[in-house]
Each structure stands twice: as structure tokens, then as C-alpha cells.
Amino acid sequence: MDKIQKIKGFADLFAPESDVFSHIERTAARVFALYGYREARIPLLERTELFARSIGAQTDVVQKEMYTFPDRKGRSLTLRPEATAGLLRAYVEQKLCAAEGVAKLFAHGPMFRYERPQKGRMRQFHQVDVEALGSPEPALDAEMLIMLDHFLTDLGITNTTTQLNSLGCRQCRPVYLDALRDFLRGMHKEKLCEDCLRRKLINPLRVLDCKVPGCRELTLDAPKITDYLCPDCLDHFDAVKGLLDAAGMAYELAPRLVRGLDYYVRTTFEIVSGDIGAQSSIAGGGRYDGLVADLGGPDTPGIGFACGMERLALLVSGLPDAKPDFDVAILDPAALEPALLMAQSLRRLGYRGETPYRPGSAKSGLRRAGRLGARLCLILGEAELVQGVVQVKDLADGAQSAVSMDALAEFFAARIGRPQGLPG
Asked: Which of 150, 195, 390, 396 has a CA 20 to 30 Å removed from the CA of 285?
């Protein structure tokens, strides 16, 4: 039988790489909770119409990148390419909008897009997603950017730049789009790439986001959207910048920053890293006032962002030591049960450790403990059972002591520290 291989672009994750992802998720939950955000869990599958309505039927995501298929009843379903649409669908269906104040949600998990696999970008990738619904105020925009910076800093990711722009609103953006179309009208096949020739007709804003060097050079002198903001959008953008300045948070204005999804209005932002090469964006988001109404809910303002976990993982280092605190060497069959119970009592106190499932020699037990990287090797045989002790060898300095079972917890606390949850 031929070996079954995994699908290209869908990665397996094991330790230590999976430890990094778990660390990112735990850090996100801890930091976001400080700002009042609660976790939500949503399906991987949604009706295709949800993404066509929210992301935009003419976007590259919907046109070229989604995994879409009919189910057995002929309904068109799509593996989620991003989390915002699903969270907003749940927000409307679960009537979270009926609650007072701002609904603050975060989620994490796999997303799916059919793209060329490369470093930091897979067809199944993972995101941390954050949404805040219910306030149009610029203070919410600023707080979200400050929270994102807090999250990245706590992950140890510091060599970053926050890029900031405003995309205007549904009143002032059409005026800008007319000016941009006029600018692009004279650029024909020999000048723009094939994608941008299509974009300039149906979604001209996306031409500014093209990564092809020739297209970027041709649009260097394109009109800036911030020159076309209406008074309300200009006041909103100035307020966001003022609050970030007051908080001492650095940013740079990026008038070409448009993001890849149609639903963004007003504040939009991206975090780029100087440490991972060309694919430097590690987080991005913005306001999407009006999107909830487009999905059948009440007219609710909102703002959110997503972080690509694969790219964050490239930048995270110095995780807490995952090596065990102890390993047990069992020298006699009669010691199997006492060893299991001893190990379990230490684990309940917060110590990490392992135990074998059959007896062996002291030499093989010490060799195994060293291979695992354990700090202490607990040696338990017939003589130790009779005496009510365990031989504890510290693999850091070679010292060995006979320790009473009743005193083992205090011995651990003295040798390797008192973990959280240990009484006294």
C-alpha cells in the first residue's frame, strides 16, 4: 500500500513548534483579558455567501483563494479564510448586540486560503483575531492599537513598526476612488500586471496594495486618500493619532495602506517586523463600521485585527523551560504502584515529571532521566520501599540523598523552587 502523505501547504505541528503556538495563545488570553475581552469559539465552516458579502465578491480572497465546495444538499460552504465574518455572524445570531456597552471578543485557530506556500504562509494557517463592537469612538481605535502593542511586547517581539492610515467612510471614499480611477486610466497592459489591470476596473484601491515592483513604482504618485477625507473622518483620524502620541506609542503614516478586504473604513493599520524578510506583516486590521448591518444585523460600529501565528512564531524565542523537574527510576516490580502514586502527588503540587511503566536498573533509569533533561532522578526499589524513602539524585550537581516520602515536597521546594499552588 502506498504511503499516504499530507497535503501540500498543511503543516503538522509538534513540540517545540507547537509549544510556541500554545505560548502565543496563552499570552493572548492573558493580555486581552486585561482589557475586558472574552474568548469566542466559532465554526471552521460557514456558508460561502457570508464571505462574499463581508469580504467583497470581487476581492482576491473570494475570487481566487477560498476553499469552497458544495455539501451533500448542494449548499455552498467555505472553510473560513478569516475570522471576522464568522464572529460578526455569531454576534448577530446570538444577539450579543443587545448587551449594553461594547462587545469585546477574541478567538484563535486555523484559517484556510489557497496561496503559494512559503515561509510564514501556509494554506492552513493560524490567526489570533480580536473584535470590538459597539463604539465608533477614536479612543477605542487607540486602545486596540495599544493593546496589540502590549501583546507583541509580552511575546518579546519588539523590532516592529506600526503603520497607520485612514480609508475614509462611505461618503468621502467614492470621491477618492474617482480620483484614483482617473490616475489609473492611462495605465495599460504594458504597464500594470494582469491582476492590477483587473483591479483598476473593479477594485482600484487594491492596486495600491500590489507587491509587484513595477506596479508599485507606477503608482508612487497616486493621489493619497488622506487628502480626500471628509471633516468627520479627518477629525477621527487626528483624534486617534493624538491619543497614540499621548500614550507614547510610535507609528508611521502609510497612505498606501489599504488592506485586502473591502469592509474597512476609517482607521486601518498594519504591524510589520524588521526580522522576518519580505513577508514582514505580522498583524493588521481596522474599522469596519457598517459591516454588521451588511450581514443583517443592527447598524453597529466595530474595529478589529488579526495576527498571523506562523509569523509570530518565527519571532518568539526564550520560552519557559519545558524539561521535566523529575523522572522516576523503578528498580523493582513492587515499586511500580508506589512510584505512580508518588509521581502523581508531585504533579498535583505543580511539578512536571515522568515515570516508566516497567522496572529497570538504576543505570538505565539515570540514563533515561538525563536524556529527558530532568533535574532530579527519583530512584525507588525494594530497599527504599522497606525504609519508606526515595533516593533522589540531582543531575545538576550529582548530589544524592535519601529522602522520606513525607518530606519529598519540601525537598523539591528547597532544591528547584516552590511551584505555584504548593502550600506553605
From this structure: 195
pLDDT tens for the chain, 424 residues: list them: 577 777 778 888 888 888 999 999 999 999 999 999 999 999 999 999 998 888 876 677 888 889 999 999 999 999 999 999 999 999 998 887 655 689 999 999 999 998 776 665 788 999 999 999 999 999 999 999 999 999 999 999 999 999 999 999 989 988 988 888 888 887 665 677 877 887 777 778 878 877 788 888 888 888 899 999 999 999 999 999 999 999 999 999 998 888 766 678 999 999 999 887 766 889 999 999 988 998 888 899 999 999 999 999 999 987 867 789 999 999 999 999 999 999 999 999 999 999 999 999 999 999 999 999 999 999 999 999 999 999 999 999 999 999 999 999 999 999 988 775 443 3
Domain ranges of the chain: 17-172+229-315, 326-416
d(CA 180, CA 39): 40
β 103-112/76-79 pair status: unpaired
Q: Is 238 helix (H, G, I), strand (E, B) or coil?
A: helix
264 marked as part of a ligand binding site: yes
Q: Is 131 annotated as a binding residue?
A: yes
Cα separation, 149 vs 158, in Å, equals 9
Question: Binding site annotation covers 334?
Answer: no
Largest Cα–Cα separation, the chain: 93
- For 326-416, give the CATH class: alpha beta
Residues 221, 223, 226, 227: is their CA dihedral positive or negative?
positive
Closest to 395 in 3D by CA, of 343, 346, 325? 325
Which three three-digit cell numbers place residue 260?
A: 485586502
82 is in an annotated binding site: yes
- Give Cα 261 distance to the centre of its chain: 19
Beta-carbon count within 10 A of 200 CB: 20
17-172+229-315: CATH topology is BirA Bifunctional Protein; domain 2 (3.30.930)
